[in-house]
Amino acid sequence: MKISILIPVYNEEENLPLLYDELCAVATDADLDLEMIFVDDGSTDTSWEVVRRLADNDQRCVAIRFRRNFGQTAGLAAAIDHSTGDVLIPMDADLQNDPADIPRLLAALEEGYDVVSGWRKDRQDRLLSRRLPSVIANRLIARMTGVPIHDLGCSLKAYRREVLSGLRLYGDMHRFIAIYASWTGASVTELVVNHRSRRFGESKYGINRTFKVLMDMVTLKFLGGYTTRPIHFFGGLGAGLMAVAFAAVTAVVIEKIVWDTFVHKMSVLLLSSFLATASLLLVMMGLLAELIIRTWHESQDKPIYVSREVLNAPWVPADGTPRANDAVRSVAETRATSASE
User: Mind spelling out the 3-state secondary structure of the chain?
Assistant: First the structure.
């Protein structure tokens, strides 16, 4: 069984050599057939030079360099596209995920599961800005989706390749892959993993990430339950608004009859009604835009990232399955051939 370690990288120059050494040690100790796919997501430090050096010295290292910063989801998508393993294991490049947990994830897969999701039960992050918002968001998502995972934000997971077959990632939806897999019938379990304090560099996420996760949660719920019947979603919102509007009209009539108050004098009520309606319209426009952008990408087979340089990656996957970026590979291969001629 070949294992692909998927590692998006953004400004982690000090952590990368240590992570590589730990992965090599795990591969040797557990006798694993391992490939390491590093995706430099537009780093502004020397991360690419470190990754290039690793790829030059070890053919097990695949190095991909983006033309600019496309985000963690794009980095993970590129790593999946260039992987050849039977099992795919994403992890962060900041050394907070422990490579020593990889054999434990594989052992859980051997029990018959399709997805093993890491759970940072003893998380080594700041309480107010990282841990508390994460706990609240994870509980809301588990309640909305019906998939009881405690820590969707943990990058360290293990997937059988067939679970990710045909999966297209957009936006920041990488954290919800386990939920998508569960909805398609994959068996999912959790495993408590070790979480370490950051030694070098700074975290790339802050408290503003919580709001983005909540917006992604609305998108997830819509895509998971209403893509084939959107009228149930938008019709339900419309019915709710109609009920609120009827209640507001009733209140205005009562105000007029009892206190002789004209509605044009209730400026706060008018403003709140306008803002509530506008916010709902924006949310619905966002959901429709999510569907449109997916159609735009998939109808033209456009990847969500553009690579500047790829090292040690085979252009044709071992299983022969077309990937989302095969067109990009063909163009790059043609250019490389022309340059050599």
Answer: CEEEEEEEECCCCCCHHHHHHHHHHHHHHHCCEEEEEEEECCCCCCHHHHHHHHHHHCCCEEEEEECCCCCHHHHHHHHHHCCCCCEEEECCCCCCECHHHHHHHHHHHHCCCCEEEEECCCCCCCHHHHHHHHHHHHHHHHHHHCCCCCCCCCCCEEEEHHHHCCCCCCCCHHHHHHHHHHHCCCCEEEEECCECCCCCCCCCCCCHHHHHHHHHHHHHHHHHHCCCCHHHHHHHHHHHHHHHHHHHHHHHHHHHHHHCCCHHHCHHHHHHHHHHHHHHHHHHHHHHHHHHHHHHHHHCCCCCCCEEEEECCCCCCCCCCCCCCHHHHHHHHHHHHHHHC
Whose tokens are 């003893």? That residue is 122
Q: Which two tokens stand for residue 277?
A: 């309606």
The rounded distance, in Å, linking the Cα atoms of 51 and 311 is: 10
The pair of structure tokens assigned to 318 is: 């071992």
Strand 61-66 to 307-311 pairing: antiparallel
pTM, 2 dp: 0.74
Q: What is the pLDDT of residues 208-247, one digit of tens each?
A: 666 677 777 777 777 766 666 776 677 777 777 777 777 8
Question: How many other CB atoms sit within 10 Å of the CB of residue 193?
Answer: 24
| CATH class of domain segment(s) 2-205+302-328 | alpha beta
Name the residue ranges covered by the structural domains of the chain: 2-205+302-328, 230-299
| Cα–Cα distance, 240 to 243 (Å, whole number) | 5
- Per-residue pLDDT tens digits for 134-191: 788 778 888 877 888 888 888 899 999 998 877 777 777 788 888 888 888 899 999 9
Which amino acid, residue 26?
V
What is the spatial distance between Cα 27 and Cα 285, in angstroms, rounded to a whole number? 48
In whole angstroms, give the CA distance from residue 160 to residue 175. Answer: 16
Residue 64 and residue 39 in contact, taking contact as beta carbons nearer than 8 Å:
yes
The Cα–Cα gap between 231 and 209 comes to 30
